[in-house]
Amino acid sequence: MHHFIDRRANPKGKSLGNRQRFLKRARESIKERVDKSVKEKSIKDGGGVPAEGEKVTIPTRGLKEPRFHHSSKGGRRRHVLPGNKEFIVGDTLKRPQGGAGEGGKQASEDGEGADEFSFTLTRDEYLEILFDGLELPDLVEKATVETETIGTRRAGLTTAGTPNNLNLVRTMRNSLGRRIALQRPSVRSIAELKEQIAELEALTERTEAQDKILEELLHRMEVLERKRRVVGYIDPLDLRYDTHVPEKIRNSRAVVFCLMDVSGSMQEREKDLAKRFFMLLHLFLARSYEHTELVFVRHTHHAQEVDEETFFYARETGGTIVSTALDKMKEIIDERYPPDEWNIYGAQASDGENFGNDSARCKALLLEDLLPVCQYYAYVEIVDENAEMLLSNPEAGEDLWQNYRQVKAQASHFEMQRVSQPAHIYPIFREFFLPKAKGAQNAGG
Amino acid sequence: MQAADTVAEPLFTGPEWTFELLETARDAIEDIALNDLGLDVYPNQIEIISAEQMLDAYSCVGLPLMYQHWSFGKHFARDETLYRTGRQGLAYEIVINSNPCISYNMEENTMAMQTLVMAHAAFGHNHFFKNNYLFQQWTDAAGIHDYLAFAKNYIAACEERYGLTAVEEILDAAHALQSQGVFRYGRPPKPTSEELAAMQKVREGYESGQSVLDLWTDATMGQDKLEEIRDEPFSARRKLMNLPQENLLYFLEKHSPVLEPWQCEILRIVRMLAQYLYPQKQTKVMNEGCATFVHYYIINKLFEQGRLTEGAYMEMMHSHTNVVLQPEYDDPRYSGMNPYALGFAMMQDIRRICEAPTDEDREWFPDFAGDPDWRRVMRDAWANYRDESFIQQFLSPHLIRKFKLFTLADDADQSHLLVSQIHNRQGYRSVRRDLAHSYDLAYLEPDIQVTDANLKGDRELKLTHTVRDGIHLSEENKDEVLKHLRRLWGYDVSLEAVDAGT
């Protein structure tokens, strides 16, 4: 007795539960590594996480499976080895470092010998750990007014319906089956019969026998024609119609506005920091929404919408008027992103320099026009690498910073932070998106 | 070798396999296995699986069903990464000691490899599992599936009731003591009547769909015995608790003052599986030797009969040669004796000694040198030995010379290693004894036993490590294991090293 079983169609992922338990256990270590890898990641590679997952190497601490083992050193042992070439009894050899022969093998069999443990996180696992504990501000509130459209979904076949929903294939299949079952005379058999009758009728003189045949043929013809009338080519019984049921389709869409100052003061370092921030924001939102769009707006003393490439890699010179970017954002929202359909996010990066009294205008634009339609707005100021004073004292700052501080005082979904190096990005990003205390909801303005 | 001029058609011609071809090849293999070699096998259940599923099977020690634990996930994550980055291939097959005998073949294999794998696993390993005395006495091939299913459900139910962390803590601790969770020498004490009743309840619970967990927690799993033991003097304690006890998991399961019944049951599950797998650890050389010999014999036979194309035969031989490669000690690829190489060579050698014995063979193996029925001699060997005793009985001077074996003595008191024996007349017996010794698990694994636990006094659990040949426990990990042990016992645990000589 024997049999073959094809198990390939069985669900794989039998170890999924084990894997989740493992990830849970190693979570702290993995998180450390994931955070580190984001900081080090070059955005030129596309900025995101590779689709095939992210390789991480974590220390084995906490992942050890300790066992009692014999020490590989000391004592008296005998090892039998193959391949003796010139040894004779009594020869001596220098003791190799780290114990003879198979000494260390048993320990490393389990990955215990190594201090580090490497494996690959899937993209989802990576992102989940990356954004662990973060949540979208106001996501729940917005979700209740989430735009819904009514669509339809196919829901099988019915026997009644309107002609435009007729399912021709199913109908014809039924018809054919019925015709075969009820033996509907075919066109060809009738044609043959007709031919024979015509042949006989064409004769000027018929014998008695021929008359008899003709009569018979005519009778058969009559039977066939009656049968064709009774067994129709298509009977109402054959008809099948497609049906559709209405369905609510939830549109969860988000647009992220990336606003950046690209005037001369924004060097590679500053842009790189901004990039990391935008990248994280996009990854984060893409995970929460089915569909996210990015809008890149750069500005000097005037603002323009550009593609990602230009946004990050081209450089302009000129003065700086920050409000032009905010104006541009407002304009684009009005044109393309009705707030009742889109979740709108603003992210702005700047070195804090602004022209004259433009900062007051920025404040007004934010409070009156942008914040009321935004889910969230984050401002990142990129300061000098050694600007310890600015980093430690949120009260100090230039005109733009001061005005934005006033905005923050009035709107809880507006956040601002300063950064000076890549390592700052992720922590402040987390701070932006940490669950906020309830009640501190939308703008006061 | 030249294919005989027979009318037989090749079983298959291309690399692609189909179920029809597998069926045909299996029938041809079975004919040779049963009617020529005289093998006796469990019914075969051959399952075709994908690479992904092979990885799954790998990480759960090759068992078809396993309870969930993070360490299996860890192994999966590591194996998967190694495999995806091309640094490690997958085994062509996994075979399970069960009735019916389940073997996994990978879909990626060519038809030639599937044929080789079937001969190797579905007949070679299968015969060994069914006939070797260790498997017969210590494992329940018919019951293992039910037991695994019970274990998986039981642990899942515990997780639901007591939480993942509580279960994980017990499993971690039990796994740390797995190697000390087997009976090496004697059978375990028979279950008490209360235990039998409790087990019976579990079975009924399954059938009536009740919660298994409730039945176990209500069961009287040896909890009452504690009271009796409490006031006994040392000698009586030792008797009541079966001391000294080499099976630490068994001891904890029966006598730990702090473990709940469900925790004891988890220890029992880990212990049962360790015991089930123990014969495989003891027979690696023989088991692989048997399977490799069987596949080698069968594919050569098929080729002689004209039922394999030259291409298929070459592919199989190429794979076979890789498997039985034994690098020499100074080769960078050397990592100990290859069980496939040693096992296969010994099987071939037994056949040679039967068919064409030399005077030396007659002197060394008077019982079977020149025996006309080499098949029976080999089947007897497969049935009645484990690696250590097999090598001690069957390793011939001929093979010692062929492998150019030598013994290196490593005495920590000496500054140098000493070549103590080589492959010459004076050395054969010692080399053979030394090699056999190195397959004795009782010697390879630390001998740690429970020697006392005074439940009336400080409740300290006293363990003794018997030190042989001056080899102590590795300090690395030792404290971690002791911590786990303390958790299971609930009170202090001490580990004393005692030299075997004293």
TrEMBL record, chain A:
Comp. bias regions, Basic and acidic residues: 25-44
Residue spans of biased composition, Basic residues class: 69-80
InterPro entries the record matches: UPF0229
PANTHER family: UPF0229 PROTEIN YEAH
Family the entry assigns: Belongs to the UPF0229 family.
NCBIfam families in alphabetical order: PRK05325.1-2, PRK05325.1-3
Protein name: UPF0229 protein PhaeoP97_00190
Source organism of this protein record: Phaeobacter porticola
Automatic annotation (TrEMBL), chain B:
Species in which this protein is naturally found: Phaeobacter porticola
Protein's UniProt name: Sporulation protein R-like protein
Pfam families: SpoVR, SpoVR_C
Domain of life: Bacteria
Record-annotated membrane-spanning stretches: none
InterPro entries named in the record: Spore_V_R, SpoVR-like_C, SpoVR_N, Ycgb-like
Domain SpoVR-like C-terminal: 446-500
Domain SpoVR protein-like N-terminal: residue ranges: 16-442
